[in-house]
Amino acid sequence: MQTAQQFTRMFGRALPSLCRECRKGVPSVMNAPVQSLVAGLHSSAAPHFPTPAVPEAEAKQVLEAFNAWNDALATKDPAKVASLYSPDAVLLPTVSDRVRNTPEKIRDYFSAFLKKEPQGAIDQIDGVSPNIRFLAPDVAINSGTYVFALKNDDGSRSKVRARYSYVYRKRDGKYMIEEHHSSVLPETGGRVV
Q1: Alpha-carbon distance 11 to 119, whole Å?
Q2: pTM for the model
């Protein structure tokens, strides 16, 4: 088990208030297990930073960015889909085990995925999708669930339900995908029931 002293040596300034105590040599902090110190940082006693107030029109632009992505899928053009991701974006895709963290790798993923002729729709499981939140006036998260109709090898179509998280940043007046994670729902294996 690592102590805060060992953790501080490895991560220095990563946790400024914790590290300040460690540098002072406070024995209870220096020798405390890191797990309990980190858990303390996530407690209800931790300071709360309110979500910035964002006009409703801004949230609508985030949803429109999702719709633009979904519309780009329908073009079957991997370059068009990849162009909606920022140059340093990260894609954790639904049907690949590899992290895609360059424009080329993202385009490569969609070259294969678009052969399945995906048609997506945000799902309304329990009425909670989409969830759009702003971390800053120009940074938003859209998360929830969606259902994709995909072409099978035999030409038939099947539906897959997945959860998603998109992180968007507004660049030059347009929301770009900074990070995108998608995975099938584990409870149903992605089957639409």
Answers
A1: 44
A2: 0.70
